[in-house]
Amino acid sequence: MPAIRIYGQPDCIWCARAKALCETRAYDHSYTDMKADEGARAYVAGKVGAETFTAPQIFVGERLVGGFTQLALADNDGSLQQMIAGA
After folding, report:
1. Residues 58, 68: Cα–Cα separation, whole Å
2. Phi, then psi, of 22 in degrees rounded to 5
3. Is 69 left (phi over 0), alpha (psi -120 to 50) or beta?
4. How many beta carbons lie within 10 A of that of residue 11, not counting itself?
5. What's the whole-model pTM score?
6. What is the residue-wise DSSP string for 28-83?
7. Structure letter (DSSP) for residue 12
8. Could you tell me whether strands 57-60 and 31-35 are parallel, antiparallel, or unpaired per DSSP bridges?
9. Average pLDDT, stretch 7-12?
10. pLDDT (tens digit per residue) in 17-53
């Protein structure tokens, strides 16, 4: 089962909402809140292909979901559950 990783920053409302969605849906056992330090920013930038970091950046396993909006859309259409299940 791939883990959800949320790369975020303190006091980021979208990061908090992403974490709350995971907790509400009982994905809290499978998500990790990752501090967006310089190493994490470089990792995410390489995966995303962007020069700047926006928070949050959410991954399921190695697959980029996007930010909170994309996470919520994936949750609503069932694709998040499929990603978590490893489909």
Report:
1. 8
2. -60, -40
3. alpha
4. 7
5. 0.84
6. TTTEEEEE--HHHHHHHHHHHT-SS--S-EEEETTEEEESHHHHHHHHHHTHHHHH
7. -
8. unpaired
9. 88
10. 999 999 998 886 677 787 777 787 788 878 877 777 7
Domains of the chain (ranges; CATH) run 4-85 (3.40.30.10)
Structure token pair of residue 35: 């501090």
Share of the chain above pLDDT 70, in %: 97
Token readout for 82 is 């499929």
**What is the structure's pLDDT at 87?**
53
Q: Write out the two tokens for 63.
A: 């697959």
The amino acid occupying position 2 is P
25 residue type, one letter: R
